[in-house]
Amino acid sequence: MKSYQRNALSEFLGDFVVYRNLVPVDQRLPGFSDFFHELKMHSQYAPRKSSPEYAKIIIRILAAARTLDTPHAEIKRLIFLGDSRMNDGTAFVNICRAGGWPGIAFIGAENDQPRQTEILDEGDNCTLYLANRWNLLAAFDTYLSQQNFPLDEGTVVLIDMDKTMLGARGRNDSVIDRARVDAAFQTVSAALGDDFDALIFDAAYQRFNHSDYHAFTSDNQDYLVYICLIIASGIYDLDDFTDQVKSGRWSDFGTLLASVNARQAEFPSKLRAIHSDVYACFEVGDPTPFKDFRRKEYQITAAHMGHLESGCSLDIMLNEEIVITQEVRAAALKWRQRGGLIFGLSDKPDESSIPTDALAKLGYLPLHQITTDVVGDGV
């Protein structure tokens, strides 16, 4: 591997990106609210990435993007690049089915095993190409040719942002995770002030950030950080709290919120204000209810992009900075030159990805527009 000239994801995406709210950054494109009534959605908030409803919205956004980018061209097939067989693989199959398109997805995640690929038939002309090296994207490009899978104006290339374009899984993803944990720590610390106990916070985060508790936390970082806030505040003892979850008294996050809400008069004013905001957002179905935490996550994530001095080692870059994956960048540029529509997807909340108006006035940019280092192998 080596480092390349710094760049931003917008080099090959422009503003053809949607974050969790399914509102394209390119304001010429329609978004979730434009299809809400047509698709008879049951919530005012965008569905999550792995749901069939998400796919129905994405294919409409893509059709509009293809027309805007290349009038009269028609999408006939799909290529998908991601890092998660479960989440990205499910989204890929749903989008293929919703669009009626054949598709092939590259799912990458580096590990210390010998180089290997696995090809899985998911039915409905959907194929998963699993690889344990990001530089196997070169072999994937060859595979597309062998399968007579054209890459032209009839092809849309969907690329996951988080841990694929940025912070490649198995190579650079720990920096993304660390930024999120730092944001949680700073948010809770600011809320509790002198009453903040870092050891209790860390113990609560480590315990509940685990698949054993996903039925309770819904694997939602907003819920998890709120839980850590409540425990670190001393309102509940960590072990007693865990027993309440295991016993089923709090069967899900909503039952916890209702229990805490009944005691909010006991809280100091700042904690009560945060609880009220989270509770109000949750009650209306907002999947990103802890806004303070997510806005802090944006600032810390942005601060970990392109901040290192030039000439530092690859090890330092990969351990301290969120970098662009060169293999993904090279493939996207090549495929765009052949006529493919390149479009970015992110399940990261908009609050974690796009600056507030106040920050934008200070020069802050959406994550895909921030210049950072580029690391990887040429493709």
Structural summary, described in words:
The chain is an alpha/beta fold and 379 residues long. The protein is 44% helix and 13% strand. The chain has 16 helices and ten strands. A seven-stranded mixed beta sheet has the order 2-9-7-3-4-6-5, with helices on both faces. A three-stranded mixed beta sheet has the order 1-10-8. Helix 4 (87-99) links the parallel strand 3 and strand 4 (103-108). Helix 6 runs parallel beside helix 9, helix 6 (173-192) packs across helix 13 (291-303) and helix 7 packs antiparallel against helix 9 (221-232). It is globular, with a radius of gyration of 21 Å. The model has no long low-confidence stretch (mean pLDDT 95).
Give the strand order of the largest sheet, numbering strands 1, 2, ... along the chain: 2-9-7-3-4-6-5
The share of residues in extended strands comes to: 5-15%
Output the structural class. Answer: alpha/beta
The run of helices and strands is: EHEHHEHEEEHEHHHHHHHHHEHEHE
Mean pLDDT: 95
Number of helices: 16
**How far do the termini sit from each other?**
11 Å
* Estimated helix fraction: 40-55%
**Rg:** 21 Å
The shape, in one word, is: globular
Poorly predicted spans: none
Could you describe the largest sheet, including whether it forms a barrel?
7 strands, mixed
Total beta strands:
10
